[in-house]
Amino acid sequence: MPGKHVGQILWTDLTVSNCEEVRAFYEAVIGWSSTGLEMEGRTDYLMAAPDPRPAPQEGMEKTAAGICHAMGDNAGLPPQWLIYWGVADLDASMTACEKLGGKLISGIKGYGNNRYCVISDPAGAVCAIFEQND
């Protein structure tokens, strides 16, 4: 069933050029721990909170966010926390975005059977919309 968790924040990533430094910063300041995740020949990080929370996917109860290198598919993303919102139909949401004055920042990207893209709203705020098909 496409579009699980519609309207909910599914994930948050931070894409930066100094990934290791920023990972260490959030470990020290927030209390997160990290696990390396191989992505396109580099190591990005899954940041985990000490306590479990409700999770959009089974097994992610302690995962708080991702900290990623600004390389590969992430090249060109602004150095800000990027929220991924669940949508029912990515194509329809992309069409509505442009029709209502938003912009498509990236083309459609895949993550397993899931699809997403990065958009900006009419005010210029950036987020990702994510069609969850797993």
From TrEMBL:
Transmembrane segments: none annotated. InterPro entries: Anthracycline_SecMetBiosynth, Glyas_Bleomycin-R_OHBP_Dase, VOC_core. Residues 8-132 form the VOC domain. This is VOC family protein. It comes from Aquisalinus luteolus. The lineage of its organism: Bacteria, Pseudomonadati, Pseudomonadota, Alphaproteobacteria, Parvularculales.
